[in-house]
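Tokens for chain A. Residues wanted.
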């Protein structure tokens, strides 16, 4: 089965591939809490948590009103854009990744703002559960999700 990926999903794929080279595991379209969905949540080799929001156009960026709510769920926050994106729109106090469908490069490292231990534990556990459930659904597509997994 071939899935047609949207421009932002292609960027997320390139970002996830790049982060893997740095020892990170990435989950795309991750929901840290109800009402928020991040494009890429990455768990690093030392337990660090990065969020990467992928923007494919000026309109895509300007219509994003939730991104500041993501800051409290990660240690570092990045934007991922392609080479045609007007990067002067992006806040300088955030990280910047240039990406395409196949790879990426960190252009500006995001400042670190470490999560509180209790929040980190909660997000790492959710990350692990979501990743394991996705793998199980991949192996068993007819698996019916539990009500708690639909949130």
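Reply:
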């Amino acid at each position: 089965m071939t899935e047609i990926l949207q421009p932002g999903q292609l960027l997320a794929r390139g970002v996830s591939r790049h982060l893997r080279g740095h020892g990170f595991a990435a989950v795309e379209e991750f929901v840290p809490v109800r009402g928020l969905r991040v494009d890429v949540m990455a768990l690093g080799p030392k337990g660090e948590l990065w969020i990467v929001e992928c923007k494919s156009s000026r309109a895509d960026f300007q219509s994003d009103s939730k991104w500041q709510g993501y800051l409290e769920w990660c240690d570092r926050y990045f934007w991922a854009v392609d080479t045609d994106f007007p990067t002067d729109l992006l806040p300088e106090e955030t990280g910047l990744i240039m990406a395409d469908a196949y790879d990426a490069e960190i252009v500006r490292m995001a400042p670190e703002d470490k999560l509180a231990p209790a929040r980190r534990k909660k997000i790492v556990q959710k990350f692990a559960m979501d990743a394991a459930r996705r793998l199980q659904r991949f192996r068993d597509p007819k698996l019916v999700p539990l009500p708690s997994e639909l949130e």
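The two ends are 27 Å apart (CA to CA). The mean pLDDT is 92.
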